[in-house]
Write a structure and sequence with these properties.
With 259 residues, the chain is of the alpha/beta class. Helices cover 40% and strands 25% of the residues. Helix 3 (69-77) packs parallel to helix 4.
Length: 259
C-alpha cells in the first residue's frame, strides 16, 4: 500500500514539475509575446493583420506600441524591449540602422502613402487647396521633428512658399491620428495627414492631394530589431507582414505596397 501511495505522490510531483517547466499547469507552452513599435498611421491595418497572424500562429501573441516614428525610434535607441519596428519614414529607420539595431537580413521598405489636406465635413468650405491654407485660423500638422507626417507637411508648406505665412497658425500634434482628431472635432480648420488616415474617418473629407514632388517620398520600412529576445518568432512575423497576402490587406486600407 505504501509503495502504491509513494508512486502516486511521485507521479503528482513529476506532473507538477513538468507543468512548471512548460509555464502552464496543463503542460502547454506559454505563447511568445512580440512587441511591435509602429507608426500610428498603420494602426487599423496592423490590428487586422494581428488577428489573422495569431490565428495561424497560436504560439505567438503580438503587442503594438503605436506612436510617432521619431519618438518610437528614440525609445528603441534607449533600450526599449522591441522586436520589430515599422516606421512611417526612412530617417528614423536609418538612424537605427546606423546604430546597428536593425537585422540587415530582415529589413525592407514595404509601403508608400500620400499626404492629403483634410477639413471637417461639418466645417466651412473655405479650405479647398494648399493655396487656401492662409485663410484658416488654425491648421494641424504633426510635430515635424518627431512625426513624419509633420515633416512632410512642413516640407510641403515650404515648397509652396506658405510656411512663413502660416507657421503662427499651426497646431502641432504628437502623431498623425491626433491631427485627424483635431480636424474631426473642429478644433482646427484643416490638417495635413496621410490618405490612409483620412479614409478611416467618416467625419472628414479630402480637399486636396499633395503632389509627391512637394516632399520626400512617404515610405514605410519594416525591420527586426537585433536585440529581440525572440528573433525566430520576430522573423516569422516579418515574413508574414511582407507576404503578398498581407500586402493586399494593406492595399485595402489605402497604402501602396512596394513589391
Amino acid at each position: 500500500m505504501r509503495t502504491i501511495q509513494a508512486a502516486i505522490i511521485a507521479l503528482l510531483l513529476l506532473t507538477g514539475l513538468y507543468g512548471c517547466a512548460t509555464g502552464r499547469p496543463d503542460g502547454g507552452q506559454r505563447p511568445v509575446e512580440l512587441t511591435v513599435s509602429a507608426a500610428a498611421s498603420l494602426q487599423d491595418a496592423l490590428e487586422e493583420a494581428k488577428t489573422a497572424f495569431e490565428r495561424e500562429h497560436p504560439n505567438i501573441r503580438i503587442h503594438y506600441n503605436f506612436g510617432s516614428s521619431g519618438a518610437l525610434q528614440k525609445q528603441i535607441s534607449q533600450g526599449a524591449p522591441v522586436d520589430l519596428f515599422f516606421s512611417a519614414a526612412a530617417l528614423p529607420f536609418e538612424e537605427l540602422k546606423k546604430e546597428g539595431l536593425i537585422d540587415s537580413k530582415y529589413e525592407k521598405t514595404v509601403l508608400a502613402n500620400e499626404l492629403v489636406l483634410i477639413v471637417s465635413k461639418q466645417g466651412k468650405e473655405a479650405i479647398q487647396s494648399l493655396d487656401d491654407i492662409p485663410r484658416a485660423k488654425r491648421v494641424a500638422i504633426g510635430i515635424p521633428e518627431l512625426v513624419p507626417a509633420g515633416m512632410y507637411a512642413k516640407q510641403t508648406l515650404e515648397k509652396a512658399g506658405l510656411w512663413e505665412q502660416v507657421k503662427a497658425k499651426l497646431i502641432y500634434a504628437k502623431d498623425v491620428r491626433q491631427v485627424l482628431t483635431y480636424v474631426e472635432t473642429g478644433n482646427v480648420d484643416a490638417g495635413l495627414v496621410y490618405r490612409t488616415d483620412a479614409l478611416v474617418s467618416s467625419n472628414v473629407k479630402i480637399t486636396a492631394v499633395v503632389p509627391d514632388e512637394m516632399h520626400e517620398p512617404i515610405v514605410y520600412p519594416l525591420g527586426v530589431i537585433k536585440t529581440s529576445n525572440h528573433r525566430k518568432e520576430a522573423r516569422e512575423l516579418y515574413d508574414y507582414l511582407t507576404s503578398e497576402q498581407t500586402l493586399r490587406r494593406f492595399e485595402q486600407h489605402g497604402f501602396r505596397p512596394i513589391r
